[in-house]
Amino acid sequence: MRKIIFVLSLQLFFASNSLFAFDYSIAEAKGNEIIQLFVNRKFAQIEGKVDSLYRSYYSATTFEKDWTELTGTYGAYVSSRPVNYEVNQYYNFIAFKIKLEDLPYVLNLSFNEKGYLIYVSFMPAHKIYVAADYCDVSKFSERKVTINNGFYELPGLLSTPRNVEKAPLVIILMEAGPTDKDGSYEENKPYKDIAWALSTKGYAVYRYEKRSNTYGIYMQRDKAAYETFTPREDLLDDLYKAIDTLKTLPDIDPTKIYILGHGQGAMLAPLVAKERDDVHGIIMMGANAKRTQEMMIDQYKYLSYVTPNKKKEYDEQTVNAIRSMDKKLNPLTEHDKMPYSVQATYWIWLNKYKHVEITKKLKKPILILHGDRDYQVNMENYRMWQKELEKNPNVTLKDYPKLNHLFYSGEVESTYSEYYLKSNIPDYVINDLLAWLSSH
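^ that's the sequence the OP posted. Answer follows.
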């Protein structure tokens, strides 16, 4: 099927400098009207709602051709619901998930300041991110908030509930490696699932780009010069700046700030709770209790079993992991002798980080969630958390038999490739997050 896609020229895109006069409810109503016109095959009426500048691209003929081919291939229209909404000074964008008998599609619509259509496209739902049913885009808005930390300017998105004067704030502290603000694996975006789900229920959620994603070339320069690089430069310094920035915003409740860490972010969350009095509680998802390098060695052993063709590569990384645990490790050790060629200073810092001991001494509320199918942080770690924290009344622990490291569901042995299978975090995980937050 020919996709109806139009890219606005810069001249036309910036032609208007006025804000939209209509809000989400009007955008949703206009979108639903367009959908019903498609269903009733009133294509000329849809064309009449297109701005005159764009009717050469969007005509009754093209609308009829695409809708006929779409429904003829994937079945009759069943239902629809909004799954995305964005507004700025140039356009008002809303997307609907269109349920057809055989395959869902997404209808994207943009309106100009006069309420006329300037963009229409149908896209397969399995090829783009689609919000789960627990996300209600009518209940929250999202705006860009950049964290300025000296040389580093880190773009982020703040989701805030509508009609809440001062919302509790959850900041997502991401996984190791070049993880983006959404925790993306192509169309899968687990951090976005969490942010939109919590904002639907009254919480502000901030997610942002890691320094390594936006300033990789500068970090490579520092690496070549053997500059010190530790989890503080990688994650903590920017997180602390984000806390300082966000708690001053008028729609944020500075007395109710939570850190939701995933993977390495979860392992560092106890230190954040220790060092920051303004953090009320922490959530640890997929957190290792073992030392990081020990956890990595477990990974390599597992991966050598499920993907034996790569055993040589995993054996080399195992040697590097063992070397990085040396108590007398030289900070100037060659990078290629360290795990993933990350500076020795990073591993020296981790060798000194006693995260389990820090967690045991915390009095703040702590939620620890774990997937039983998580091969990156296996269940031995979860059992260690249980053993060490069973007497701590401030700690809640829960594991999920079918979930992997991304908290996506599956049945067979988990592998990295599974992260790319189209999915969303299950609603029962979201419900547990909300229940814990509301009780603390």
